[in-house]
């Protein structure tokens, strides 16, 4: 009960992005085939339609990952020519999705495989060379009616007999999130997966690494129990330690609080290590923050930083007459043994941007953010703690309005999609030492 109370208190403090969620918008069910291809790939459509002419096809595109098109083109058998993969259901039985594979035989496209999937939806497809033979294994992740649970991945390996491609299923594993990567720096890809299960009302989060032997056997190199989580937001792999991967996993503990697990392969002990798990089980973990804040490379050094949030009494969010504390986001880096502070920034909810603050500014500025107007004002803080002169503002407006010249005295700072970011420095700000280059260096668009 004490842990729940503390986490609820922490939840109330992390006001940035508490309404963050993701929704996949699906149109009213309609029967459709993949969009017709043109040019040299037009034969793919014809071959697929011929192979499925007795079915009423509904396209299933992968919901996550790099490959999200109706046709996935990839040379997985290393013959120098791309193969085509598409997913579909037959409306006579929408509980089963099919993976259809087509190959080019030198003169035309032909159907070479039509495989029953392990679910009604395709969550993700990826490719990885698990035995170092130059051919890519195909990892397909299935789910049941877009469910976040109940996902299953299957691993297929290509076989080429007399220039004809076929697929052999090697493994089937339940999972919550997965990531192909070279975990142990042996030059072969492994599959890092995480699985959340519930037993007697308690959640369990386990990570496993699947590898392949020289006989195409799939086995678990090791497994490790992590902090109990409701879901896994994302997995990122950083190749370090002479090629071995360090995996960053953002895990949601409850409806609003997330932490980060760091997992790597210990070559000497021949096992997985997760050095942050013990702390993540604590009442208030070091990496606890809003579930809307993922790990990201904030300083462009190629290494993800881990966000945490702290009270910052000098910054408030103003909504009408109400004032709420605007938390300070402190970004931590993991050096292999411990966490250390990289930088601190204010994350502006609804504006998708951040502004880094120096240690001196944390003591000498007062900040007021108005999300409705999407403007953040920075004031000098006087010695008695009261607000002094306005020094500068950061604001966001629609790019359409900016291009119309509705910018007043504001100066362009950055553009991202439909948003344009700008700043304005007052005379008091110039006297205080605020410069355009200083603002540009410390401002970042977050997504």
Describe the protein's architecture and organization.
With 447 residues, the protein is mostly beta strands. The protein is 11% helix and 49% strand. The chain has seven helices and 30 strands. It has helices at residues 2-13, 42-51, 277-280, 359-364, 399-403, 427-432, 436-442; strands at residues 57-59, 71-74, 83-90, 93-104, 109-116, 121-128, 137-143, 151-161, 164-175, 177-181, 190-199, 202-212, 218-226, 231-240, 244-252, 257-266, 271-273, 289-290, 306-310, 315-319, 322-325, 328-334, 339-348, 353-356, 365-370, 375-381, 387-398, 411-416, 419-425, 443-445. The strands form six sheets. A seven-stranded mixed sheet has the order 21-20-25-26-27-29-28. Strands 1, 2, 3, 4 and 5 form a five-stranded antiparallel sheet that branches. Strands 14, 15, 16, 17 and 18 form a five-stranded antiparallel sheet that branches. Strand 8 (151-161) and strand 9 form a beta hairpin. The longest helix has 12 residues, at 2-13. It starts with a helix and ends with a strand. Mean pLDDT is 87; it is low at 1-32.
